[in-house]
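Practice problem 4.
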């Protein structure tokens, strides 16, 4: 069966009006990215089940984990790294095999909260996993349609890219949702400082 090879250009946004672009690196269908505290990147290659560590300054890459059909990656405040796949949520540590820590069918987008909880979208539901591994499904007051991105704001608000409905939703601790923004076909979403940023398809909307 033929596979589509996708080349991802590693781009650093260093200021609102300044962009630094590095050497392009070849990836096989990248679906997730996270920035580590030292500035290195973790990139999930769904096409070959790899999690790569990228040094943007040097343009080097190393494989830190192999997980079949890996999809998304999230970094917890504790330094723990989590990756989702159709089997569930995995914990990865450099130099050790990936460990399945929660069985969540069709686990997709991930986000980590300040208290160490990991939030994962599975189908049109959102689950919250405690550090010990217990998982519960959030009781939401609206119906989602194919969420493709999650992020946790600094005040604990969960932001959801409700892709099928073309909107970003804000979810409070009680599971109540409010409309944060209307965005055509929103995908990944990330929070930095007090800014919320949304990725649409293969381009960024800032």
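Answer key:
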């Amino acid at each position: 069966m033929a596979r589509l090879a996708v080349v991802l250009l590693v781009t650093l946004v260093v200021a609102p009006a300044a962009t630094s672009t590095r050497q392009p690196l070849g990836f096989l269908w990248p679906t997730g990215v996270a920035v580590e505290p030292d500035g290195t990147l973790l990139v999930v290659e769904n096409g070959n089940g790899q999690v790569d560590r990228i040094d943007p300054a040097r343009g080097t890459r190393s494989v830190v984990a192999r997980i079949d059909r890996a999809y998304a990656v999230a970094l917890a405040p504790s330094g723990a790294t989590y990756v989702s796949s159709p089997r569930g949520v995995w914990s990865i540590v450099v130099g050790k095999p990936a460990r399945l820590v929660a069985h969540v069918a069709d686990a997709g987008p991930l986000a980590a909260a300040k208290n160490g909880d990991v939030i994962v979208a599975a189908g049109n539901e959102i689950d919250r996993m405690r550090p010990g591994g217990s998982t519960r499904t959030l009781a939401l007051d609206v119906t989602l349609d194919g969420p493709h991105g999650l992020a946790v704001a600094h005040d604990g608000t969960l932001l959801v890219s409700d892709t099928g409905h073309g909107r970003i939703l804000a979810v409070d601790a009680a599971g109540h949702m409010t409309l944060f923004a209307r965005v055509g076909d929103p995908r990944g979403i990330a929070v930095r400082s007090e800014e919320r940023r949304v990725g649409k398809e293969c381009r960024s909307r800032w």
